[in-house]
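**Paired protein data**
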Amino acid sequence: MRVDPIREGVAVPRGGPAARVVWVLLWFALAAFAAEFVRHVYLKYAALDSPAYAMFLSRRGWLWCHLGGGAVGIVLGTLQFATQRWRRHAWVHRWVGRAYFAGMLVAMLGATALIATSPAPMPIRAAFAATEAAWLVVASVGLLAIRRRQVELHRRWMVRAYLVTLAPVVFRVALYGAVNAGMAPSPNTIAALLWASWAVPLLVYTLGR
């Protein structure tokens, strides 16, 4: 009989009532943050004559691929933090996880095409490529862990994968803050913020464990 690694693996620690309240509040904050980012991106590119398409006019298909897959990844990644606790409905967590991976792979496909055809300076293109590579690495480790029934290891690496998934959100917040602080958005500044948008959260998470 096939053993369900999610149902039979290491249980997710539940903690006391205070910890559960904090977890729920953090989840709602994350969900609201992710939803607002998806809404902002949709409004930015909803009109086909939007000036946001200026440098993507001939590459709109790849852009939509990247944005659509990324939106699915951000939304479903947030949902996964809730479904991991649904022990009686483990199939929901599995299928949401599969959809998350599918959405992110579509986003990676679009990102690869956009990077390859981008006129942006090499530091920026390299930083975008590094973000893509980071997600592929940490998500692959997480997927391999659950295939081996290492549930706790899977959980830790998928948290890392979601932190990288949120890199575009973190980058835009950081860029907005940098510009408001008087920094010029030079190619080197943009590249540095792109690297930091996933490297810093991963470092903080790793050190905080």
